[in-house]
Amino acid sequence: MQGLILQLTRAGFLLVLWLFVWGVLRTLRSDIYAASGMRVPARGSRKSAVPGALRSKQKVAKYLVVTQGSLAGTRITLGTQPVLMGRADDSTLVLTDDYASTRHARLSPRGGDWYVEDLGSTNGTYLDRAKVTTAVRVPMATPVRVGKTVIELRP
After folding, report:
1. Beta strand 83-86 pairing with 93-94
2. Closest to 35 in 3D by CA, of 112, 149, 136
3. Transmembrane region positions (predicted)?
4. Alpha-carbon torsion angle 89, 95, 97, 100, nearest 10
5. Do 136 and 116 touch, CB atoms closer than 8 A?
6. Dist. CA 70–CA 140, nearest whole Å
7. Within the chain, which residues score under 70 in pLDDT?
8. How many CB atoms lie within 10 A of CB 144?
9. pTM flag (> 0.90)
10. Beta-strand relationship, 130-131 and 125-127
11. Where in the chain does DSSP place strands (E)?
């Protein structure tokens, strides 16, 4: 009887170990694909590049607007300098949020686009529910969550 209990315990631990490994791999996969903001295209499908004439007609972000949080309604005019977000007094957007780090995230211009990057914050930065791990382009009116504060780029 003791041998049967020992074998069932071993099998149970092995099952728990495999479930843990599967969970870790699933989380890593979702973080990698969510951070890049890209989906793997279906085989045989082609996406054409946006012509320069159409790209120039797209709206350009002029303002950073806080849509949720203690600073809701705050509007910052965007220029050529990066926007630093965090609890530090020298941040462009000073957050009074317990879930924000001192230097939480940076929003910086690259050409005509704006990119958000997490600066090693404790709670992470999210672009429309996807965790930001590298610099990611921010589309117009897409929510970016820093702690409990949500910001968007507006024309």
Report:
1. parallel
2. 136
3. 6-25
4. -80
5. yes
6. 22
7. 33-58
8. 23
9. no
10. antiparallel
11. 63-68, 75-77, 83-86, 93-94, 105-110, 113-118, 125-127, 130-131, 136-137, 144-146, 149-154
Structure token digits, residue 40: 């793997």
Contacts of 154 (CB under 8 A, 6+ apart): 61, 62, 63, 64, 65, 140, 141
Q: Which two tokens stand for residue 105?
A: 């995230």
pLDDT in tens, 90-102: 999 999 888 999 9
CB atoms within 10 A of CB 47: 6
User: In the Cβ-directed half-sphere of 117, how many Cα atoms lie within 13 Å?
Assistant: 9
Whether the Cβ atoms of residue 115 and residue 135 lie closer than 8 Å to each other: yes
Token pair belonging to 20: 């843990």
Residue whose token pair is 């529910």 = 129
Whether residue 109 contacts residue 82, with contact meaning beta carbons closer than 8 Å, is answered with yes
Instruction: Check residue 29 and give its pLDDT.
Output: 78
Q: Please tell me the distance from the alpha carbon of residue 120 to that of residue 24, in angstroms, as a whole number.
A: 21
Q: What residue type is 90 in one-letter code?
A: D
